[in-house]
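Work Package 4 report. The design task specified in the project plan requires that, given a folded chain encoded as structure tokens, an amino acid be chosen for each position. We show below one input record used in the internal validation round.
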């Protein structure tokens, strides 16, 4: 999410207008995505409810991205070429080399310690 927001002129939040997760679901979203324990001692029913909220949020973001970018960001083959000519000209940051990409990852994506 941070990488998308750093490179694209519209944030994911803006792109998926109306798609909102409750604060609690936002806090555990990444844990659930990666199959990790949430440390919240959730019941099965509570976990399923959060998963439903997160799926609805993902569906809304995916539809918005598909409409704007031609790819939903969730499909199996995530390394696809867009059918939108020169879509890269929309990007805030232009990456023209592996060192540029490495620098972008370091500055925008790596966790600060």
């Amino acid at each position: 999410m941070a990488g998308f927001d750093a490179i694209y002129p519209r944030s994911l939040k803006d792109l998926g207008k109306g798609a909102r997760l409750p604060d609690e679901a936002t806090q555990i979203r990444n844990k659930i995505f990666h199959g990790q324990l949430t440390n919240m001692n959730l019941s099965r029913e509570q976990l399923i409810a959060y998963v439903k909220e997160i799926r609805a949020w993902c569906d809304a973001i995916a539809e918005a991205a598909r409409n704007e970018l031609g790819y939903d960001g969730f499909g199996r083959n995530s390394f696809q070429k867009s059918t939108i000519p020169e879509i890269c000209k929309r990007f805030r940051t232009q990456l023209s080399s592996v060192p540029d990409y490495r620098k972008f990852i370091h500055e925008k994506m790596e966790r600060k310690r």
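The first helix runs from residue 2 to 7. Validation will be extended to a larger panel in the next phase.
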